[in-house]
Amino acid sequence: MKNFVSLRIVTLAFVAGYLLKTTSADADVTFAGVAAGDATTNDVIVWTRAKDEANPQPTDINLQISTDPTFNSGVTTLLAGTAGSPTDYTVKANVSGLELRTVYYYRFQTTNASVTSNIGKFKTAPDSTADAPVRFAFSGDCDGLIRPYALASQVPAKNLDFFMFDGDTEYETSASIGSPAVHSTGNIPDPTVVIPTATQAQLFDDFSRKCRQQFFSVNVGGQNCLQPFFAGQGNYTAYDNHELGNKQYINGGAPAGGGVGSTTGSPPFDFPTGAGVDARDPANDVTPNDGSAPFINKSGGFQTLQRVYLNYQPVKDRGTLNVPADPRTTGTKQLYFAQQWGRNVILINVDDRTYRDIRMKTAANADETGPRADNPDRTMLGATQLAWLEQTLLDADQAGTTWKFINISDPIDQIGPIGGGLTLVNPPTTAEYGTLVRLPRSSPLARRTMQGPSRWPARSPLL
Questions:
Q1: Which member of 89, 235, 255, 345 lies 3.0 to 4.6 Å from 83 by CB, making a disulfide possible if both were Cys?
Q2: Mind giving me the DSSP string for 55-91?
């Protein structure tokens, strides 16, 4: 395999002060699945989860990679990392030295080769000057209530160059009634929860469990949910509200309204143990923010949930941003990036959760169209990321890149509640599928619309 001997690997699963060791009971280890992501022309992130459920302990895991899908030739074997409890037994590694525009196959093994994972596949990007065709798909919103996601098993047959995963890689709500972590990531009352606020350990354990469920079957012998999807191609992944508990943490760039990073904040603003501020309460909407108030993205709860997401998705570690002039951004992990895919296409992955202001929705569960919305200081991406996005688009335009695909996990939604007092000027009266009407909020169709475009037909009547 040409130049493949130059392949090297950088393990991402290291935790400071954590003793790594190889076990003698490798035969009892099981692999949840495999995944690959964030491929460039010469490197990729690969992922797996390996654990002996009966006797959990740190286990060294090898990676095998080849251009031969049968692994009969050209196989390189490397130590991928150690699966242990700090990462919920997940392993991520950055494999570099790859050939551009090449399809690779990979799998994981215990170091004694007694247990082998399923086989995954990914493709590296073509050179930025190449006139290369691009075949990709996109979707998101993996609500556990519709497991095992029968359609996901058909994605590998599409032979995609890559898949854009648009967030909500798990839903914390499904099949979790009574769990304090998934129901009390904030201070919004929930009658099904005995413990009023979740600890960081509960946040980590319960959200890790929701991620694990995406790789296992609902019924014995059934489809292993998203396992075939993850193995079928490489992904570029963004995160959205459900990875962050769908409560106050979804507004990562908003002022927290209470103590952050210590136990000195008055309850229920004790972020290190998982509690926080109700982001729908206008009293917590401090705008414009001069940086003197702590941000939700600096809280222990937010960072714990983000860590679970990063443990379970093949997302590259791009380091921590150091931007002292932008207090809501500095000290956060950089999740946004751009990847050229040949001469004509650039993929731009943005982070629309870490830096965004408080949501439009108020404590009365209505979409605010007054002072909260009519505010030129509001932001979704934050100043640093927005400047980067604008420059990336300008550079791509100047380079002659025709197609610029921006992967953003949130739609541009309506302003004001459905059925509200918004007056249209010279509104249309007919559409391709019939007469246009305004729906009352109580309408099932209106409720469905407010759940987001992933639950809406591709061609829907205007409201």
A1: 89
A2: S---EEEEEEEES-TT-SSS-EEEEEEEE-GGGTTEE
Model confidence over 294-351: pLDDT tens digits? 788 887 778 889 999 999 999 999 999 999 999 999 999 999 999 999 999 999 999 9
Q: Which residues is 51 bridged to in the sheet?
A: 30
Cβ within 8 Å of residue 61, ≥6 positions away:
48, 50, 79, 80, 81, 82, 83, 91, 108, 109, 110, 111
Number of residues that make up the chain: 463
Kindly state the average pLDDT of the residues 389-416: 87
Asked whether residue 258 carries a pLDDT value surpassing 70, the answer given is no
Domain boundaries, the chain: 1-124, 129-410, 423-463
- Report the predicted TM-score, pTM, of the whole model to 2 decimal places: 0.81
pLDDT tens column, 221-254: 999 999 999 999 999 999 999 998 877 788 888 8
422: closest CA among 444, 435, 439, 404? 439
Q: Report CA 199 to chain centroid distance, whole Å.
A: 22
- Choosing among 3.90.780.10, 3.30.300.30, 2.40.50.100, 2.60.40.380, the CATH entry for 1-124 is 2.60.40.380
Sheet architecture: strand order including 337-340: 337-340, 345-349, 403-407
Q: In angstroms, rounded to a whole number, what is the distance separating the alpha carbons of residues 252 and 282?
A: 16
Asked if the bond preceding 267 is cis, omega within 30° of 0, the reply is: no
Residue found by looking up tokens 């960081």 in the block: 200
User: Does pLDDT of 25 surpass 70?
Assistant: no
3-state SS, one letter per residue, for 370-384: CCCCCCCCCCCCHHH
Superfamily the domain 129-410 falls into: Alkaline phosphatase D (PhoD) (3.60.21.70)
